[in-house]
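Changelog-adjacent note: as of this version, every example in the card shows the full chain rather than a window. The one below runs 145 residues end to end.
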Amino acid sequence: MDGLGWKKSSIIISVMTHLTIAYWCVLVAIILPIIWIGFAKAGTRNYIHEHNSAPRELLNTLTGFRKRAVWAQQNAFEALPGFIAGTIIAHLMEASQFELDITALIFIIARLAHGIFYLIDWAFCRSVVWVIGFGATINMFLISI
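Full-length structure tokens:
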């Protein structure tokens, strides 16, 4: 391997080892809406051939857990900006890395539970974990002070 190829590889490894748990949680949070919409679309008839050219039309016709999966996706997107901002601001303000990582993990666990509770239609539990996830986002700003 030439010197340049080795240098590129070591840069990639260096960047990956410097990503904190909180930053990895941002990536997971970005992926969550895709997971929820996957539940909405999976198993629908002729999705690839008929509905892929106009997926929002399909989403408007869904019912039951598939409709709730669409709502879970929308809510997951709505939660992203605050979580991403809180994570970046906490890093920039040099908040305790341990506290930030734990807070980010709590957010992810809450958001996973939120989506699951949406799918199975447990409204009260969904609201409780929504508050926990929102509280985690607020905590990122508080630990930055």
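Structural remarks: The chain is about 85% helix and 0% strand.
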